[in-house]
Input
Amino acid sequence: LDVTPSVANFLLVRFPGGDGRAAKDADACLSSQGILVRGMDGYGLPDCLRITVGLQQDNMAVVRVLTAFMAG
Output
């Protein structure tokens, strides 16, 4: 995953796509675990998700779910 440097309270994360690893697939996976993120299709970035930085436990949940997602 590529993360764009940020000074805001969110991360712009670019997904590699293909093989079920597209941003829309990650969004569906995160949503199934109750984690809501924002797709960036409307900004011309269909391979990216905007993920808000939250509480430590919330951030760790995102990391855990995305690690499992990327592992397949």
